[in-house]
Design a protein that fits this description.
- The chain is an alpha+beta fold.
- It has 2 domains: 2-96, Roll (Nuclear Transport Factor 2, Chain: A); 101-245, Glutaredoxin, CATH 3.40.30.10.
- 40% of the residues lie in helices and 19% in strands.
Length: 247
């Protein structure tokens, strides 16, 4: 008798959960259908609740936008959590754009090892980017890391960054050339237009576009999650710790 009551109770809970979940799924499907009808060229991948009540998050063609319940209005912009100043839209985009870390072309990276090198990080950086310089100062304070540096000059923003990247790549000691330039503005030796065998500049531009990297610095941690912008030493340590603790 007690077993029958328990089974009945669990079944009722399951039905109640389904009843509450179904309307949301139906609403998401309706929003998806309406947006795809209004924007045939857009590939709507997912619709779900957003952090802001009354708005729904829409992932379309790799981007995040927001809409209302009947999909009559579309919002493009950022949702920022006031208490933490965290850009929740950027965090969501970073989640969507996580990668398989091992798939990166490490033969086209400058390998920088400190200590035992146990914590790995892939970094796309521009030699003229001020935020990259800030990040380099913070990375210099962290031990036991391997940074795979991918030279990623944003020439339209920083004219001359492509030539500087090539000079660093063509230096006898690429790691020292990068660190000396970013930490003390000591220019690498060689002609500004110098090129050398294996110069990856153009191929890395194509890779960056594929990975939707539009700003530097952009980082990928070992578990594949992405972060953009300069982080403090403490923030970097937290990211490394969180990555190591994941199964």
């Amino acid at each position: 008798m007690l077993v029958n009551r328990l089974v009945g109770f669990l079944l009722a809970c399951l039905l109640a959960t389904t009843a509450f979940a179904a309307p949301d799924e139906a609403r998401f499907a309706t929003i998806k259908q309406q947006l795809e009808s209004a924007f045939p060229a857009a590939k709507v991948e997912k619709v779900q609740d957003s952090p802001l009540p009354g708005l729904y998050e829409v992932v379309a063609s790799g981007e995040v936008v927001y809409t209302n319940a009947d999909a009559s209005l579309l919002f493009t912009g950022r949702i920022v959590e006031v208490s933490t100043k965290q850009d929740l839209t950027a965090r969501r985009l970073n989640q969507l754009r996580s990668i398989d870390f091992k798939s990166l072309p490490f033969d086209r990276a400058i390998k920088l090892v400190k200590g035992d090198g146990s914590r790995q990080l892939a970094l796309f950086a521009d030699p003229f980017c001020p935020y990259c310089m800030e990040l380099e100062q913070e990375l210099a304070r962290i031990e036991n890391t391997t940074v795979f540096l991918f030279l990623y000059p944003l020439e339209s923003i920083h004219p001359g960054a492509t030539e500087q990247s090539r000079k660093i790549w063509c230096a006898k000691d690429r790691g020292n050339a990068w660190s000396a330039w970013m930490l003390s503005r000591t220019a690498p030796e060689g002609s500004p237009s110098e090129t050398c065998e294996g110069d990856p500049t153009e191929s890395l531009q194509a890779l960056g576009q594929e990975l939707k990297i539009t700003a530097t610095p952009t980082m990928f941690f070992e578990d594949g999650h992405r972060l953009s912008g300069s982080l403090s030493q403490d923030e970097l340590e937290k990211e490394f710790a969180a990555t190591v603790s994941k199964p």
